[in-house]
Specification:
Layout lengths: L2 E4 L8 E4 L11 E10 L2 H8 L10 E2 L3 E9 L11 E4 L23 E5 L3 E3 L6 H5 L1 H15 L7 E4 L5 H12 L3 E6 L2 H9 L4 E4 L5 H9 L11 E5 L7 H6 L1 E9 L12 H6 L3 E4 L5 H12 L7 E6 L3 H9 L6 E5 L1
Parallel strand pairs: 9-10, 9-12, 10-11, 12-13, 13-14, 15-16
Antiparallel strand pairs: 1-2, 1-4, 3-5, 3-7, 3-16, 5-6, 6-8
Length: 337
Amino acid sequence: MRAVCLREQGSIDKLTLDASYPDPQAGEGQVVIRVKATSLNYHDVFTCRGMPGIKIPMPMIIGLDMAGEIVEIGAGVDGWKAGDRVLVNPLDPTDPAKGLMGEMLPGGTAEFCAVDATRLIAIPDGVAFEQAAALPVAYGTAHRMMFTNGGIEGGERILILGASGGVGSCCVLLSKMMGCEVVACGSTEGKLRALTEWGADHVINYREQDFVKEIWDRFTKPHRRRYEGGVDVVINFTGGDTWVPSFKVTRRGGKILTCGATAGFDPKTDLRYIWTFELKILGSNSWLPDDLEKLMGLIRDGRLKPVIDTVLPLEKTADGVRMLADREVIGKIIITP
């Protein structure tokens, strides 16, 4: 089969297309799926470059998120048949220690993939392969962060940093679905236009504007004695230099939600804001099958439409990963083998 794989870490250029990669076989408790769509994530950039403390077995077929149809059933698999449309959960809910697809196990940038049946989730009618593949890492993480852990409620004012990427775009869509007032940050005029089209009520170009000053000017500076000013919730999965500024725009009793640190995991902090304004900092890690099932239900019912930036053929996978690394993406990048 054709597969895009990583044989050594170092740079995105290490990703190569292999036209004769061995076909996978369905082992005990597994199925083989014909991959119809795979979405890329910033995690794929980290996989190519290397991550401290994580040793990737080589060669590795990247691509954590994939959707396709079953073509082979292994021994001991019940409840599934050839032709079933499925979304693959990158994490095995029965044994997360098995590791992520596309990081510890072969992923979706290939024509076929062997998958443990415990990872399969049926794709309902009305949900396209590309839409399903967009969900797990970005949308599943956003859903869990906002609802399971964050307790987002309708009517809240929410600031979303990095709003034009995979996680961020989902946060915008889900916030508007809940009836929230959304302030979305992006880095280019094109991204700001897209954020407005998705329903953002206010947009801020963080490269040209100080988002703290913009929030204070629009909604007044948060008051440490009164529960007013600023925003109710900040969604910040960038970290880095935006971390302490996030405290400065959150009203007393407000929440800061985080699920990552794409701009730096060890920013300086300022504990005075946390106790003075009684801030709640809530972390969220990954997703559960229930998050993915609820998201597909929203798509089926016409309430959610994942934002897809572009669809690329398998041989353009490295280009897609490079687009992510260079922050050229508005939404998700989909690979179709």
